[in-house]
Design brief:
Helix content: 55-70%
Number of helices: 7
Strand order of the largest sheet: 1-2-4-3
Radius of gyration: 29 Å
Oligomer: single chain
Shape: elongated
Distance between the termini: 98 Å
Strand content: 5-15%
Largest sheet: 4 strands, mixed
Number of domains: 2
Length: about 325
């Protein structure tokens, strides 16, 4: 009877095994969901590259760390079961396995209810069906594994084949993430480009404020420097050089930067000059799409939207 009591080591290993299983399963499903979003984009889903890439990187990072932990812990548990078969009857093991079966059953039932609901509502799309299939495949595999493990012990050869098959699927999913989210180097290049766009947005706002105050555009970005507010024109985050600024007319100016990659948020590749409109979100109504090279954003100030203080005083 003594051997059937759970030691602190048994509690630790079984809890770590089941928690790492949940995290790995959730991360794998999340990863597949993002692949489906990329392969079958929805016109009503305005998910950007950055949100998809961020989700993919989190799922990849979780699988890279947590899934090997799950494999290692289960290898240790199976080694203990081989040495002491009575440990398979530990209460903590049975409680956790049955709880996992219960949770997996709830997820599968909910998944099927959602499938029928969408079918009745005429909203069955290939994208939705693939996501339902992804959940059924991952959760169904977990359910089948632990149900079989409760009723009949896996042989070493069966366990090895199953481990290799699941590991191959997980590894393939992780590798796919590099094609979806890009390499770490590509992610860093995107971050440099993001900072450039942010800097240009700041400069644009300062140029508009300057025009409102003085009814003229400055002949250089250095004129925007303000000792009172502490503002200084930002520089390129990588090279440290000044951003290129051109005045094309009384109301027209251009801001230029050298970009590493094409803009990730770009839906269309039409790089046209667009007027400056007031926009609380910055990116919402303004075109900041760019190619992978030096690109100049042409902006035209609308005096009907932006009232010059000098012109206003003259009218009074």
């Amino acid at each position: 009877m003594e051997t059937k009591k759970s030691s602190p080591k048994d509690v630790f290993l079984h809890l770590l095994s089941i928690i790492s299983l949940y995290i790995s399963a959730g991360s794998l499903i999340a990863l597949w969901f993002q692949y489906i979003n990329v392969l079958l984009p929805d016109k009503l889903d305005f998910t950007s590259y950055y949100s998809i890439a961020g989700s993919v990187r989190w799922a990849m990072a979780s699988l890279m760390i947590v899934f090997p932990v799950y494999l290692l812990v289960n290898w240790m548990l199976n080694r203990d079961y081989s040495a002491m078969p009575e440990k398979r009857e530990l209460k903590i093991r049975k409680w956790l396995v049955h709880f996992t079966l219960f949770l997996a059953s709830l997820i599968i039932i909910t998944d099927l209810v959602t499938l029928v609901y969408n079918f009745l509502g005429g909203d069955l799309t290939g994208r939705f069906l693939l996501k339902v299939a992804a959940i059924l495949l991952v959760i169904g595999t977990i359910f089948g594994y632990y149900l079989w493990d409760l009723r009949k012990q896996f042989s070493k050869s069966q366990l090895k084949i199953l481990t290799l098959a699941v590991s191959a699927v997980v590894l393939g999913s992780i590798v796919g993430g590099f094609f979806t989210a890009g390499s770490p180097l590509k992610a860093r290049l995107y971050r440099f480009d993001d900072q450039r766009i942010s800097d240009l947005q700041v400069l644009q706002n300062e140029l508009i404020n300057y025009w409102i105050q003085k009814d003229a555009l400055p002949d250089s970005l250095d004129k925007l420097a303000n000792n009172i507010t502490g503002f200084a024109p930002p520089k390129d985050p990588d090279s440290g050089s000044n951003y290129l600024y051109k005045v094309s007319g009384k109301l027209i100016f251009e801001l230029c930067a050298d970009f590493n990659l094409p803009s990730a948020n770009s839906v269309s590749r039409t790089f046209k000059a667009v007027p400056v409109y007031p926009s609380p979100e910055g990116l919402y109504q303004q075109n900041w799409d760019h190619p992978a090279s030096q690109y100049c954003f042409s902006r035209t100030i609308d005096p009907e939207l932006y009232k010059s203080q000098k012109a206003y005083l003259k009218l009074r």
